[in-house]
Amino acid sequence: MLFLALSVSASAAAQPQFLVREQQQRQVVLPSNPGEPVPEARVAAGVATYLRFDAPIDKASLELEGRPARLRWVDVGERLVAVEPSVDLGAEEKLVMRVRYKDGASPAVATLVLVSHPTLVDKELEVVRRPRTVEALETALAEKEAELAALRALSGPAGLVFSGRLDPDGVQAQRIAKVPASARSGLRVAGGEGYRARSWTLAVVRVRSLPGQKPWVPGGARLTRADGTTVKVRSVDMNKAQLAPGEEGLVTVETETPFWKAGEVFLLEVLDKSGVRPLPILEVNL
């Protein structure tokens, strides 16, 4: 009996002793300059730590010190690295981890160090790059909104124009006369067409932004009949997210179901999002 008790005690002493630590969820920001401190990930034996990245990472590029001697397992996903140490790291021990982002943005490589803390462990660690400025975020939002509008347009009549599947020589097509450039807007209309179907009409205008102008994005439109009444506009789209200086694009204006006689002349004004650079007023047959 004494021998059995000693054997059990020796076996228990040989097993890893896991300390109980408070598990936390937090965020670290990767440095943008080489001289800044490298963020730490606090790990512990017997606890899986999940490092979640703010962009896709290259799985094959992962470099992690201590494999396999100090780590029980490591798993790499599209945006995730999971690690679990087999033993607690020493008080001064640091295991360097590097992984490359797929998008190539700065910093291109995420570098962290795995460390041990006596009372804390990171259960989930969100790894992010430097937060972008408000101006950069507003620009990115505007680009995404324009892209969404372009995708939405592809499901309607405007998508037929952008894809080249709507032939102006087909049925119910009317030409839009050329008009001179507007000194106010810095835009030139290079012509266009008006299309009419049973449930919609569509004005298509070829627009060129003159050199030296700011990027232009359509934001709305007004269609007015000869008697002064307006027609409901369903959508205003363009085949580009924005019109850069010197570029040409197609702007489409889709209306409600036509209740007027074919060929009626309308006044069309396309407004930009800023409200200060409208297109010249056009005469459109729909």
Structure, described:
- By secondary structure, the protein is mostly beta strands.
- Helix content is 14%, strand content 39%.
- The strands form 4 sheets. Strands 1-9-3-6-5 form a 5-stranded mixed sheet, with no helix packed on it. It has a 5-stranded antiparallel sheet with strand order 10-11-12-16-15. Strands 2-8-7-4 form a 4-stranded mixed sheet, with no helix packed on it.
- A hairpin with a 4-residue loop joins strand 11 and strand 12.
- The radius of gyration is 32 Å and the shape is elongated.
- The chain starts with a helix and ends with a strand.
Quick take:
With 286 residues, the protein is mostly beta strands. Helix content is 14%, strand content 39%. The chain has helices spanning 2-14, 134-153, 157-163, and strands at 22-29, 40-43, 49-53, 63-64, 71-76, 80-85, 95-100, 109-116, 120-128, 173-176, 187-196, 201-209, 218-224, 230-231, 233-238, 248-255, 265-272, 282-285.
